Structure prediction request, 92 residues.
Amino acid sequence: MLKTAMERDQQARPFEKSIKQFGEAVMNDQSLLTRLDQTPDKESFIQLYRGLAADRGIHFSRDDLLIAVQEQKQGSNWVIPKTVLRMIADRF
Prediction:
């Protein structure tokens, strides 16, 4: 039953897979972490995060990212790496 619910959620929210995929790429590339950490505010972070993802063929909307951030702040749907989430907490 839990497996079925998880599969349903993945189909209903395909952006989570993209956000998670890019989060994994960020964690494997220190230069991406450094660039993200240099952003001064929320909007520049979002723009750079989405732009870097798009450069790698990974796409999600601004709203999709904000949904994932909000849900993680509430303790659910862990799709963004904790290191990136700490950067977000400083800016959001």
In short: Helices lie at 2-12, 15-27, 30-37, 42-55, 62-73, 82-91.
